[in-house]
Amino acid sequence: MRLSLVGTGYVGLVTGACLANLGHTVFCIDIDQEKIANLKRGKVPFYEPGLENLVQHNQQAKRLFFSTSLQEIISKVEIIIIAVGTPSLADGRADLRFVWQVVEEISKNIKSYKIIVTKSTVPVGTNAEIIKRIKKKYKGEFDIVSCPEFLREGSAIADFTHPDRIIIGVSSTKAKKIIAELFANLSGEKLFTTLASAELIKYAANAFLATKISFINEIAHLCERAGADVEEVAYGLGLDHRVGKSFLKAGIGWGGSCFPKDVRALKQIAGSHGYNFQLLQAVIKVNQHQREHFVNKVKNYFKNLRNRRLAIFGLAFKANTDDIRESAAIEIIQKLLKLKAKLDVFDYQAQKNAQKILQDAVTYYDDVYECAKDNEAILLLTEWSQFRDLDWRKIKTLLKRPVIFDGRNLLNPKHLREIGFKYFAIGRP
Ligand code: UGA
């Protein structure tokens, strides 16, 4: 099939490259000329494991193309997938500016039957509004499909290839058949719903996962007071298949470009329908508290953080990405800087992005051992698995004091204490 992906961010580019890899002919569109010029040369603008290879492979196979003009491409495709960002407005609402720009562009250039698929996360009712806006300018036949995405950064290609489910909000039988064919080679249940249900499933999924994490973080507080170990509690809890093991990792709280914005947006959507979604308010509050609690732990240990030299391991909002959007690590760093701590920082991928925000307020290291040198503690803030395999004996000799605050419960407490570290984690005795 021939299709166009509008927006070459994480969602658009991964989806485009993966659909091309399924054998479809895909045109990825973005208004950013530099980005498109780089993509034409096979250069991906962000870090996502396996993506650059996949892009290059499908370009060589003449299935994946890049352009800055939807107008030029629209007549060549039968499906247009909207995958532009929907960031948060100040009041928590989703900012649909980029979606409307694409819809406007489609309305102006559509001349024959197309299926327009919304992959961007949009509030309930947006797809119905898209239909209205296109109908104002175009009197011919078209269909709208809501197909939310569930890819995680860092494992996006695997998530695309082996989805738990594919949600397809659609009312027309013609579009239903074509979209089912588009995803025919993917496993996972294909669930056909109304547009509104599909829109809400996406928000409900992200908000539920964020709730799960905030819940286990609350349990972690109780563990610290009651002398239990949250790792054992989470494991025991997750063995119940009704609960499930995933998204029960206690830590410094959830961040990223999706959970924070989608939880806020769902709360706001509920409010706009006259419903006060009280639980989400608590979920957000617990998440904010998690970061403050971690900083307080460090502060209480040292009494005063002024001029304390601390090494930060991890800047990204999670492992296997260079993304620092709403990263708990960055927020914790900003709080520590306010308390006048001196920070040496290291991350496997996110340093360049962090530099744009933190500038020269911290010192950056390309070598994790150099970063540790002469510091009074290590604060581990991103769950990069590589941290687990470091030579911790060597690190102990480099540090001024052998102290670790593990904000992700990543390391082995027993091993570190045996070496002689003072080891503090989240919700562990
Ligand atoms: C999330 C969803 O998991 C995807 O299904 C969805 O498609 C995506 O948002 C989106 O809406 O685009 P992502 O933001 O890439 O994916 O990251 P997650 O792996 O979900 O992690 C989110 C945050 O929760 C990270 O800060 C992570 O460190 C934290 N987390 C995750 C925990 O603190 N504990 C856990 O057990 C799991």
Structure description:
- With 429 residues, this protein is of the alpha/beta class.
- The protein is built from 17 helices and 14 strands.
- It has helices at residues 10-21, 33-40, 51-60, 70-73, 97-109, 126-137, 156-161, 173-182, 195-226, 230-238, 259-272, 278-302, 328-338, 351-358, 368-372, 392-398, 413-419; strands spanning 2-6, 25-29, 64-67, 79-82, 114-118, 142-146, 165-169, 189-193, 309-313, 342-346, 363-364, 377-380, 403-406, 422-424.
- It has a 6-stranded parallel beta sheet with strand order 3-2-1-4-5-6, with helices on both faces.
- Helix 13 (328-338) links the parallel strand 9 and strand 10 (342-346).
- It is globular.
- The structure holds uridine-5'-diphosphate-glucuronic acid (UGA).
- The site of uridine-5'-diphosphate-glucuronic acid (UGA) has 20 residues, from helix 9.
